[in-house]
Amino acid sequence: MKNIVAYVRVSSASQIDNTSIDMQIEKIQGYCSLYNIHLKKIFKDEGLSASTINRSAYNEMIDFVSDKENNIDGLIVYKADRIHRSLKNLMIMIDYLNEIEVSFLSITEQFDTSTAQGLLFLQMLGSFSEFERKLINERTHAGRKAKGEKHLYVGGRIPIGYTLIDNEKLVINNEDANKVKTIFKMRCKGASYSKIAREYNTTRQRISYIIKNPIYTGKYKYDGKKEKNKISFDVPRIVTDYTYNKANRINRD
């Protein structure tokens, strides 16, 4: 490789993980000097997370290496997580760089996609990451299912009107439960979702979700589109079946 660009980044916690901008640049310049590589330009993002690609210097860098007139052979970073925290996003970027014949180098991890070994290492890393992600998902699902079978709340956003105690059981929050009851009464009297939403300074989608949620009749369900758990158990009721059914028969948005 003859011409190369560097990307460096720090987040708000940069000094904690000892990867300051100056240190990254120093390591990259030392590497390029050692291997007689021309460091054409350095792109810096400061105080930004690598969990998103909405970074000005990052996008400027991608545009720069994509321009054939700049004659860039490679992109170098001190450490892979300086450019992407997500391995998936890292692999997507590397695939794109391969398409435009630009190699990717990481000093810390010591891989170089300009070599067959380096590319193979990254592909293996991607496979292991995918396996780990699926394993974590399976364990998470198994844990939630086990909690559901014990009639314990499995997680997620707690419905308005309830409070979670001991991180496991739903109990009624009287103040919010009264709001829920009023919302159902307004709907039963023919009020639109939009009108109720204006009353409570929220969105019509939020009001629709409340009206259609059977948990307020005392039935909590943990099913899932993919898992099909078919788990349900009783929780404290906030509205009667009659009120719930009447509110959901109203054909007005």
Automatic annotation (TrEMBL):
<feature type="domain" description="Resolvase/invertase-type recombinase catalytic">
    <location>
        <begin position="3"/>
        <end position="151"/>
    </location>
</feature>
<feature type="active site" description="O-(5'-phospho-DNA)-serine intermediate">
    <location>
        <position position="11"/>
    </location>
</feature>
<dbReference type="InterPro" id="IPR006119">
    <property type="entry name" value="Resolv_N"/>
</dbReference>
<dbReference type="Pfam" id="PF00239">
    <property type="entry name" value="Resolvase"/>
</dbReference>
<feature type="domain" description="Recombinase">
    <location>
        <begin position="159"/>
        <end position="253"/>
    </location>
</feature>
<dbReference type="InterPro" id="IPR006118">
    <property type="entry name" value="Recombinase_CS"/>
</dbReference>
<dbReference type="GO" id="GO:0000150">
    <property type="term" value="F:DNA strand exchange activity"/>
</dbReference>
<dbReference type="GO" id="GO:0003677">
    <property type="term" value="F:DNA binding"/>
</dbReference>
<protein>
    <submittedName>
        <fullName>Site-specific DNA recombinase</fullName>
    </submittedName>
</protein>
<dbReference type="InterPro" id="IPR011109">
    <property type="entry name" value="DNA_bind_recombinase_dom"/>
</dbReference>
<dbReference type="Pfam" id="PF07508">
    <property type="entry name" value="Recombinase"/>
</dbReference>
<dbReference type="GO" id="GO:0015074">
    <property type="term" value="P:DNA integration"/>
</dbReference>
<keyword id="KW-0233">DNA recombination</keyword>
<keyword id="KW-0238">DNA-binding</keyword>
<dbReference type="InterPro" id="IPR038109">
    <property type="entry name" value="DNA_bind_recomb_sf"/>
</dbReference>
<dbReference type="InterPro" id="IPR036162">
    <property type="entry name" value="Resolvase-like_N_sf"/>
</dbReference>
<keyword id="KW-0229">DNA integration</keyword>
<dbReference type="InterPro" id="IPR050639">
    <property type="entry name" value="SSR_resolvase"/>
</dbReference>
